[in-house]
Amino acid sequence: GPELETLRSTEVAVLPKDETWPFLLRFPISAFGMCLGVSSQAMLWKTLESEPSTKFLHVHPATNHVLWWISVALMVVVSITYLLKVVFYFEAVRREFHHPVRVNFFFAPWIACLFLVKGVPHPVWEIHHAVWYVLMAPILCLDLKIYGQWMSSGERRLSKVANPSNHLAVVGNFVGALLGARMGLRELPIFFFAVGLAHYAVLFVTLYQRLPTNVQLPKELHPVFFLFVAAPSVASMAWTRISGEFNDGAKLLYFISLFLYVSLVVRVNLFRGFRFSLAWWAYTFPMTSVALATVLYASEVDNVLTRSLAVGLSGIAVVTVTGVLATTMYHAFLRKDLFPNDVSIAITRRRPKFSKILAHLRSSSSDVKELVLSIPNFSSNSKQGAYCDDAGSIYKTRGSVGESTVAQGHGRAKC
Hints:
single chain; globular; Glycosyltransferase
């Protein structure tokens, strides 16, 4: 599949590999993963400040303010850059949309905006419901497009393109349901939660099965396996806001996310031995989401163990985001290798040369002529002998113009 960052034998690169491409061509849609990681941190610190289970930390509101404004600035920069790519290199954007991994990151800008609205520092005015409708409209359109392909499209059905990044196509529904319920809406948050839950169940089973039609992800994309944790943890928070309490349904989803988190952490070999890239931001958002869910769970089941778990997972998420952000800045501004040539979108199928096509057409037309000549000559041996003489002269003529020797042998065998 194209998610492998190497070309097939039937594909060639459109752009030269030995030259550095223009920056906009090298700027992928997955850059919005940075916005997801930082904006979710703003939401985490706001939750640490307001939830009863973490009141003893005495988190200052300024932390949430600083992180929120950093998230807004990052979102503006990344959005403007990618909009310029849409204007000047629309074909590259179209190829990303048809890429089985990149297409899921088209949900990321809208999820990041939902995080920003959810993490806004204690507004003095109430956020209007129209903001939620505006942000959820693109997610609904993408749902209809992507889920429809999963169900009915031949080359893009889920059994062929399933990979961990597909969780982003599900998480958007849960984040929307979380924010909508927080803003006082009722029916539509339940609708998006139901849609997300149904497709999450199908995706979860498909990814666990690892069907033969699935292509294994390259090692550089292994961080996206942490997206397994994101969907159930955000779903548990969404159901908590919809139902008004951290009930058994929310606990069920939370325990699934906690188990997946631990099962991935203990598999150290799966996440080492590859160079840094933007894919590392896939660690940040899932770790922050499970920390958020743990803080809410600790507020419902308040004891030393749950508080320690909430503080521990929040600390791991903060350290992870800080480390990945620092490494990103190092590769972007010092080593200047954060955005290499994007080979995965600059590919085309290798077409056969014109001479081969012409030879194939000549061979096909010759076979048709032989078939037409042979049909009326099955009745008598004398006619068959005459046909052999004619066929011999035909093959002799063909041999003079360099036609297939296999066809000549076939004709002589009939004679």
